Amino acid sequence: MLKWKDDYLLGIDKIDEQHKELFRVAERAYNLLKSNYFVDKYNKIVEIIGKLKDYTIFHFQEEEKYMLSIKYKRFFAHKIEHDEFIEQLNKVELKDVDENQDKYILGLLEFVVKWINDHIIGQDLKIIED
């Protein structure tokens, strides 16, 4: 599981706190995957997916406002990555979630964790380099 580390810090408090929240949402999904307390995890999975969608949309809007405020020259390429991530989340088929819940959580986690890591390290840190 991907853990927050200071390598992800941009030095922009609002964005750093939002990134940490994305890690917390991923951690909730991981804890659900490892939990033996729930036989049927469907409702919890749907709740986590909803939180991830809502919070990610909020975060991307905030990050994009910041990039525009500093006239970030790679804004449009960055926004395309944001839009593609949201598009992937919107493709979630809830019937697929119910068929094999743990497998679905694991796949979602792998996708989200890889994306968060690659995006923060590969793209977001460029915001502060320019």
From TrEMBL:
User: Any idea which GO molecular function terms this record carries?
Assistant: metal ion binding
> SUPFAM superfamilies under this entry?
Hemerythrin-like
Where do the Hemerythrin-like domain residues begin and end?
Answer: 11-120
Q: Which UniProt keywords apply?
A: Iron, Metal-binding
Say if the entry is tagged with keyword Iron: yes
Family, similarity comment: Belongs to the hemerythrin family.
NCBIfam families named in the record:
bact_hemeryth (NF033749), hemeryth_dom (TIGR02481)
| PANTHER family according to UniProt | BACTERIOHEMERYTHRIN
Kindly provide the name given to this protein in its UniProt entry: Hemerythrin-like metal-binding domain-containing protein
Per the UniProt entry, what species is this protein from, by scientific name? Answer: Clostridium pasteurianum BC1
